[in-house]
Amino acid sequence: MHRLSSSFVLAYHGCRRQVGERLLAGESFNPSENDYDWLGPGTYFWESNPGRAMEWASLLHQRKHPDDPQDPFVIGAAIDLGFCLDLLTSNGLTAVKTAYEDFAEHMRMSQHPLPRNIGGNDLLQRNLDCAVLRHLHGIRSRSGQPAFDTIRGVFIEGAPIYPDSGFREKTHIQICVCNPDAIKGIFRVSSKDLE
Fold this sequence. Notes:
By secondary structure, the protein is an alpha+beta fold. 30% of the residues lie in helices and 25% in strands.
């Protein structure tokens, strides 16, 4: 949790063309509230990676709208990370680990099972991670601490790019915007940036 790194980043949001055009016309983002969202509730962006945002938008489109002619689309955004829960830092990881320990104790005392992350090696549905981050938000709110503007995490995902490689095909940095005021502007992404 800090304001130690550069504050502004360019990030990319994958969606359907119809949604993207409405966003470009001034409509507000609809934050995700799924129980399996990797970084908890908020609006999701791929940091510095419009191509990966397009891959995700295409996959989502094929899965949810196989007969719909709307194409996948990507918009860019200038985001001020502000007060960021940065999971690339020791402080950020410690905060989440501490929240997990508290959450696990609450679940044990209430005799409820912990949610589970599922989906093979890539853990595509992160119900446990989402619950822990929601718990952390609640702890901060109840204790009068400031809310996070954004959450930033790195995800090692996909197959190795060559035999015995430590690099993976879909590794990325994801940004979850919790405070919509952190989105300072959006822009149309050039087709050459999506190639």
